[in-house]
Amino acid sequence: MKILIIGSGGREHAIVWKLSQSPKVTKIFAIPGNPGIAQLAECIELKVDDTEKIIKFVKDEKIDLAIVGPEIPLMNGIVDRFEEEKLLIFGPRKSAAMLEGSKLFAKNFMKRYFIPTAQFNSFTNNEIGNAINYVQSQKYPLVIKADGLAAGKGVVICESFEDCKNTIQDYFVNNIFGEAGKKIVIEEYMQGEEVSLFVLTDGEKYIILPSAQDHKKILDDDKGKNTGGMGAYSPARCLTKQNLDEIEKIIIQPTLLGMKNEGNIYKGCLYVGLMLTNDGPKVVEFNVRFGDPETQVVLPICEFDIADIFYQCANGNLNLIEKTNVDNSKNAVCVICASNGYPDEYEVGKQITGLEQFKTQDNILIFHSGTKNIGNEIVTNGGRVLGITAIGDEKNIHQTINEVYSAVKKINFDGMYYRKDIAKKAILWLNKIN
Ligand code: AMP
Ligand code: GLY
Q1: How wide is the angle at C-alpha 6 spanned by C-alphas 4 and 9, nearest 5°?
Q2: pLDDT tens string 359-417
Q3: Which of 112, 314, 390, 434 has the fewest CB atoms within 10 Å distance of its CB?
C-alpha cells in the first residue's frame, strides 16, 4: 500500500510512525509533513486545503489510501471530492464532519437520539436579549460555546451573570469569532473526569481504541488558559470496563446508527470527548478526527496493524478485520514541550538540541509538532514544538512518568516550557480507589 497522510502535527507524526511499522505499507507520503515525519515519509509541499492539487498528486503517484489528520480539510469536503474521483480516503464527508463543525448540529443530533450530554439552549445574534434573560435564570457556572470552529478558543466557562453577559457581548456584538460566533450554545456545567475515546468506523462496524486523558490547560493542576493540549496519557485510569460498556451502548452505537439512519453515514475516526459525571458518562464534544496529543499515547500501545484498519474503514469493510489486540500490559505518557508564551504570542526559530540520543531507545518516541529544518539544524516553528512519549508497564505508571520526564530533561531549546504534572491524574485516581 502507498499511503498519503494529510497534516503536519504531532498527531500526524504518530500516525505515520504507526503506519511505518506495517508490513503492508510500502511507501508513505505526507502533505506537508514536518522534519520528524520526513524521517519516515516523503514530505510534499502542498497546502492541506488545496484539494484539487492533492487529488492530482494522489492520481499521479497511484496512492492507495489517503488519511486526513486535521478537521479543516474534512469540513472543506475533501472526502466528498475523493469519493467523486473514486479515490480511497479515511475520514468523514463534509455533512458528517458537522458533528465537530457545528456544536448546535451535534447537540441537536444528541437530543434526537437521547445521547447523554449537558442540557443546553441556543441563540442567534439577533436574540441577544433572550440569551441574556436565559443566563439570568440559570445556575452558574454556565458554559457558553461558539457554534462554529474557533481554533479551540470558542468555549468559555462563566462563573457569574456578569461573565455570561460579557461573553455574549463578545460573541454577538464584538464578533470575536466572526461567523463562528453568530450562533451560541449555552449549556450546563458538567463536573467529573474528562476522557477522550477514539472510535474507528466504516459507518457500521467500529473499533474503540484505548482511552486517554488530555491536559488542556497551560499550567500545572489544570490552571490557566486553554491550549491545544499540553500532554496526555493512556489508558485513562478513571474509566472502568463498566463505564466503557455503558458508553458503547448509550453513546457510540446510537451515534453511528443515528448518522447512518439519517443518510449521513459517519466513516473515519470519531473522537468522543466525555465527562464521567455522577449521573454517568456524558458527551462534552465530538471531533471528527484523531486528537492531539492523545494520538501520541494511544497508537503506541495499539498492537494491531493500523494500515489495515484505515483501509477497511475507508472501504466500508471493517468486518474483514478479525483481531485488534490492544496490549493491556502497556501504558504511555506524552509531555508536550512548548514555546515560552504559548498559547499567546511566542518566538520561533530556536535551535533544538538533544534529539539524536533517543534513536536507539525503543520506549521513548519523539513526535514533532512545530519544528522546521534550517540547514542541518532543527528549530522551533510553533507553540507546541515536540511531544515526548514514554511507553511503559501498565502496572507501573510512576516509572513511565519518570522515564518521560528524564527524556524531556535531555532536550533543550531557548524558552522551552512543559507541564510537570502530566498523568498525575492517574496517580491521584489510584490513590483515591485504593
Ligand atoms: P469543547 O471545545 O467543547 O471540547 O470544550 C473545551 C473544554 O471545555 C472541554 O474539554 C472541557 O474541559 C470544557 N467544557 C466544555 N463543555 C463543558 C461542560 N458542559 N461542562 C464542563 N466543562 C466543559
Ligand atoms: N486534544 C484535544 C483535541 O485534539 O481536540
Answers
A1: 125
A2: 888 899 999 999 999 999 999 999 999 999 999 999 999 999 999 999 999 999 999 99
A3: 434
- Cα–Cα distance, 233 to 426 (Å, whole number): 8
Q: Is residue 352 one of the residues assigned to a domain?
A: yes
Each residue of 57-84: pLDDT tens digit?
Answer: 999 999 999 999 999 999 999 999 999 9
Extract the C-alpha cell encoding 197.
Answer: 475515546
Average confidence (pLDDT) over 266-282: 98
In a domain? residue 219: yes
- Counting ligands in written order, the one closest to the CA of 289 is 2
Residues 184 and 216 in one domain: no
For residue 327, is pLDDT > 80? Answer: no
Measuring from each residue's beta carbon to the nearest atom of ligand 2, which residues come in under 6 Å? Answer: 214, 229, 287, 291-292, 294
Cis amide bond preceding 70, omega within 30: no
Q: Which atom of ligand 1 is nearest to the CA of 145?
A: 3
Concatenate the DSSP letters of all residues of 341-395 into one string: TTTS-----PBPB--GGGTT-TTEEEEESSEEEETTEEEE-SSEEEEEEEEEETT
User: Cα(294)–Cα(290) distance, rounded to whole angstroms?
Assistant: 8
Predicted TM-score (pTM) above 0.90: yes
- 200 plus 184 within the same structural domain: no
| 155 Cβ below 6 A of ligand 1 | yes
Ligand nearest to the CA of 103: 1
328 pLDDT higher than 90: no
> Which residue owns the Cα nearest ligand 2 atom 5?
291
Q: Which three cell numbers stand for residue 431?
A: 490513590
The answer to whether position 139 is within a domain reads: yes
Distance 320 CA to ligand 1 centre (A): 36
User: Of the candidates 46, 35, 23, 36, which has an alpha carbon nearest to the alpha carbon of residue 4?
Assistant: 46
- Among all bound ligands, the one having the nearest atom to the CA of 107 is 1
* One domain, residues 255 and 315: yes
Ligand 1 in contact with 190 (CB < 6 A)?
yes
Q: Compute the distance between CA of residue 34 and CA of residue 32 in angstroms, rounded to an integer.
A: 7
Q: Which domain holds residue 155?
A: 119-188
Distance 384 CA to ligand 2 centre (A): 13
